[in-house]
Every structure is written in C-alpha cells, then in structure tokens.
Structure to design on (89 residues):
C-alpha cells in the first residue's frame, strides 16, 4: 500500500482533531499534540473495527472521518480510564 504525502497529512490532521475532540468530550486535559494524534489515529482504527460490525455507517468525506475517528477515540479513552481507575468512570 502506498500513501502519498498528502494522505499522511490528512491522517495526521484527522487524528489531531479527533484526539482533541475526544479529550474535550471525555473531560480530559488531552495528551499534547503527539498524544492527541496517536489517540485520534488509534480511535479511527477502533472505529473501523467496531462500527462496520454493528452496521453503523456515517457517510463519506472529511467531516464524517473526523466524527468517526472521534467516536472511536472516545471509546478508547473511556476504556483507558476504566482500566486506569479500576472500573470507575
């Protein structure tokens, strides 16, 4: 698989926005620029694994990718918070 430079920039942009948005929704302080990108990209991976199995389709385009990734990042942050706090949200 070949990803162009523009494709990498889009992935990083979507990851940054999704990670930041998830951090604000879950009421965290965020993880910094790199941490937010990582959380957003991992959230997109989580969303791409879970949502198709549940039959959830959000459409196409950059905005839907950000929403999709942010939802996955929120799920990821909630799981991390559950593990870190011993089961308390």
């Amino acid at each position: 698989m070949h990803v162009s430079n523009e494709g990498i920039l889009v992935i990083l942009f979507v990851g940054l926005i999704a990670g930041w948005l998830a951090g604000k929704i879950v009421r965290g302080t965020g993880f910094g620029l790199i941490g937010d990108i990582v959380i957003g990209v991992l959230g997109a991976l989580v969303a791409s694994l879970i949502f198709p199995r549940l039959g959830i389709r959000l459409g196409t385009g950059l905005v839907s990718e950000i929403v999709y990734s942010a939802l996955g990042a929120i799920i990821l942050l909630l799981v991390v918070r559950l593990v870190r706090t011993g089961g308390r949200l």
User: Anything to note?
Assistant: The mean pLDDT is 80.
